[in-house]
Structures are given as structure tokens and as C-alpha cells.
Amino acid sequence: MAKKVVKKAAVAKAKSAAKTKQVKVKAKLAPAKPPVARKGFNKTELAYFKKIIIEKRKEILDELETLKASMMDVQTGEYVTENSTYSLHMEQGTDTMEREKTFLFASREGKFLNYLDDALKRIEKGDYGFCLDCGSLIDKERLEAVPHAQLCIKCKLKRGK
Ligand SMILES: [Zn+2]
Predict the structure, then answer these.
(1) Ligand 1: distance of its center to the CA of 34 in Å?
(2) How does pLDDT run along the chain (161 residues), one tens digit per residue?
């Protein structure tokens, strides 16, 4: 008889222990916030930005092609300005300067091309449009003008200071 009582008590104790454990787990989970998924641009918007980026890329590639052609003109020693028909034999110094300018421009365009490629990668990865500094979504208007932007306008201004 006494044994039975002890057993019952033990079971009750175990049950209550289990209950306490459950409560504890619940209490532990409660304060944890659910993970906040960053809400980016939707598929339609991303496709739209992708189109802008690809078009800009094409523009630059065309410009670089034109540059290559104009560099070849410089090499022949003939320089034709945009709005006139005269050509002249450049002096050695000027010729070098012109070529340097062209190279500088070409490398700047090349960098821009890299930025655009990176932006395309970010679209694929799904993290396009987020500000690198504050994590908020960059304004659509800004991305339309500067599709490779990685900073929101606020952070861009802050960095510029
Ligand atoms: Zn920002």
C-alpha cells in the first residue's frame, strides 16, 4: 500500500517536472523575435532593373568600340574633330596626351562595366537594391538613374562628407 502511494507520487512529480520544463522552454522562446526577412524588390521590379543595367552595358560597350576606332585614327596621326572636316598631323606631345585621355576614359568606362556586372550578380543572388551601410532598400528612382548604386542617398551623402 505504501509502495503504491510512493509510485503515484513519483509519477506526479515526473509529470509536473515535465510540465515545468515545457513552460521553461516556452518562456525561453517567447522573447526571441522571428527572423525578419528583408523585403526587397519583387520579380517584376528586378526584371525591370536588369533591363536597365543590360541596356547601359550595351551603351558602354558601343562607346568602347567607338573609342577603339578613334584610337586607331590617332595612331595614323590624323585627328578629325567631331564637328569639322579638317584633319591635322598632331605634334607628338599632343598625340600622346590625346591617347592618354582616351585610355583614361576607356578605363573609367571599364570600371563602370564592372559595377554593372556586379549589380547583375546581386540581382541573381537576391540582394540587389539594399544599402550596404544601413541595409534599407534604396529608392527606386535612384536605382533607375544609377542602377549599380550600393548606397542609399542618405548614406551616400554621409560618406561623401
Ligand atoms: Zn543607407
Answers:
(1) 24
(2) 555 555 565 555 555 555 555 555 555 555 555 555 678 999 999 999 999 999 999 999 998 888 877 766 655 555 454 443 444 444 456 677 777 888 888 888 889 999 999 999 999 999 999 999 999 999 999 999 999 999 999 999 999 87
Would you say the pTM of this structure is higher than 0.85?
no
**For the chain, which residues make up each domain, given as ranges?**
38-128
The dihedral of CA 57, 52, 122, 146: what is its sign?
A: positive
Q: Which residues neighbour ligand 1 (ion) by CB within 5 Å? A: 131, 133-134, 152, 155
Q: Which CATH class is domain 38-128?
A: mainly alpha
Count of H-run helices and E-run strands, the chain? 5, 2
User: Ligand 1 center to residue 132 CA distance, Å?
Assistant: 7
CA of 116 to the centre of ligand 1 (A): 19
Q: How far is the CA of 152 from the centre of ligand 1 (A)?
A: 4
d(CA 101, CA 12): 88
